[in-house]
């Protein structure tokens, strides 16, 4: 995030994740002696107090957004791993052209190899974290689907009036939409990491994620207000930490 001298004006204001869900309120910031915003402290909606890198903040008009740590870390790996690999290949070329000594080549090659091994290990750990988050989204989808079916049942037998039913139906629909968008982003991130670990060039998946978001918002996840039936979940088509 670009440094903003008026960032302290956001203290006490609500903050959301990139899918629009409320996270909590900004409590304060940690600032370096040189005046750089380093961390943001958030009083969470769940009652927990947390600290995040200020680099993950985004100001969008009056909205304050906390960007995904996982996606940010994945982007770093996808930049660093190919860069170090290209440097090692360039070093090899210099050695073959006798522009550097064999001793210097071996020393630098070992350093590049060590850095690549460390980065790939960290990237694999991140991939495992992404898998856990995908599983969380799938469990949340199942929970919301059950909630929707039970809402239909209680409405059908007259225990919930039409006004409350419509309110609850809309709320669950919106949650289903957001969790499916998040799951699609996570799946794209996992494929992106896998491509890097396999040596493929990084690919851009944002258009597909944006397309999925648009399609999900146009097509209701569950569309029968009259009779209970299994919810239709829209899945996003696969498209494929260490200190750095």
Helix content: 40-55%
The radius of gyration is: 23 Å
The count of strands amounts to 6
Point out poorly predicted stretches.
200-244
Please specify the SSE layout and strand pairing.
Blueprint: E1 14-17, E2 22-31, E3 37-44, E4 49-53, E5 57-60, E6 63-66, H1 69-96, H2 102-156, H3 162-198, H4 206-218
Parallel strand pairs: 1-6
Antiparallel strand pairs: 1-2, 2-3, 3-4, 5-6
Q: Explain this structure to me?
A:
By secondary structure, this protein is of the alpha+beta class. Among the domains are: 7-67, SH3 type barrels (Roll), CATH 2.30.30.240; 121-218. Helix content is 55%, strand content 14%. It contains four helices and six strands. A six-stranded mixed sheet has the order 4-3-2-1-6-5, with no helix packed on it. A hairpin with a 5-residue loop joins strand 2 and strand 3. It is elongated. The chain starts with 13 loop residues before the first strand and ends in a 26-residue tail after the last helix.
Keywords for this entry:
6 strands, six-stranded mixed sheet, elongated, 244 residues, SH3 type barrels, alpha+beta
Brief digest:
The chain contains 4 helices and 6 strands. With about 240 residues, the chain is α+β, with helices and mostly antiparallel strands.
């Amino acid at each position: 995030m670009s440094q903003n001298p008026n960032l302290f004006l956001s203290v006490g204001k609500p903050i959301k994740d990139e899918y629009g869900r409320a996270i909590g309120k900004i409590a304060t910031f940690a600032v370096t002696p040189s005046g750089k915003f380093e961390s943001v402290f958030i009083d969470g909606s769940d009652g927990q107090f947390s600290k995040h890198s200020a680099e993950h903040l985004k100001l969008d008009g009056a909205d304050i957004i906390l960007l995904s740590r996982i996606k940010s870390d994945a982007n770093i790996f996808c930049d660093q791993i190919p860069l170090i690999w290209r440097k090692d290949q360039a070093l090899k070329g210099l050695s073959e052209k006798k522009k550097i000594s064999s001793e210097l080549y071996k020393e630098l090659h070992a350093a590049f190899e060590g850095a690549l091994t460390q980065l790939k290990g960290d990237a694999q750990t991140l991939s495992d974290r992404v898998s856990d988050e995908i599983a969380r989204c799938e469990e949340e989808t199942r929970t919301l689907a059950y909630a929707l079916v039970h809402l239909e049942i209680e409405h059908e037998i007259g225990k919930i009036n039409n006004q409350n039913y419509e309110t609850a139906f809309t709320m669950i629909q919106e949650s289903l939409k957001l969790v499916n968008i998040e799951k699609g982003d996570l799946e794209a991130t996992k494929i992106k990491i896998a491509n890097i670990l396999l040596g493929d060039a990084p690919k851009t998946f944002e258009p597909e994620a944006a397309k999925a978001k648009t399609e999900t918002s146009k097509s209701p996840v569950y569309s029968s207000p009259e009779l209970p039936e299994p919810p239709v979940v829209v899945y996003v088509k696969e498209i494929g930490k260490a200190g750095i």
